[in-house]
Amino acid sequence: MSGEVLDTAARPRRQDGTRVRRVGGRVVLILESGGLELNQTAESVWMLCTGTASVADIITQITEEYDADEEDIRADVVELLEELESLGALEIVAPA
To answer: Which of 33, 37, 67, 89 has a CA 20 to 30 Å removed from the CA of 20?
Structure first.
């Protein structure tokens, strides 16, 4: 994304090469740069990154799941998606 504002109509999709392990009840992504342990909220976001749900859909689902403030969730989801994209764990597909 490199400085761009994340389009909430974009659809995050997990990269095929990203390996996923469950360690001690947590999901760990195995990346070229090392392992990344996801907390429960990040795991929920990760599971929604199938290429069918938009960023806006993910924000709505996480807001409802955790009964939290949408603006806080929006900021956290966008930050997580941008981090996962920069690590090569997912691709954020622009809307058609």
So the answer is: 67
